Predict the structure.
Amino acid sequence: MLNFIIKTHRKDTIYAKPHLFVLNKGMNSGKPQKTQFTNSFVIIFQNEEDCESLFFIAYSLWQTKFWHQYLVGSVIPFLRLPDFKKQFNPQASLMMVEYEQHQKNIAALKLLEKKEKQYKEDMMLINDIRRAILYRYCRK
């Protein structure tokens, strides 16, 4: 069983233990990230392995729009801390029931993330080359 603490992030707070941030305002509520958000919850772990494992669970819940049903507020929707705490732990436990499959899914997601980053870098290089060719062509 994973041990972690969920609480509201305070600006300029420094966390010594491994942690991740989860956005709690807007339509992207539930989005996890390693760097802090202005409006976010922080999940603090005992070790880096648990942090990495739960990052992808939180990412999966965000991508599948799991948190949309718990959003409240008429102008800027937000996710309440009690709702997040109440739902996150059971969902994480449910998704980690088959630990080997969970590890395979994490490996696949990491590979896709790496390939996506590589693809974006390739696209930036292609655009740079395109600009250089057009610039030389227009300078004649």
About this structure: The mean pLDDT is 89. The chain has one domain: 4-139. Residues 4-139 form one domain.
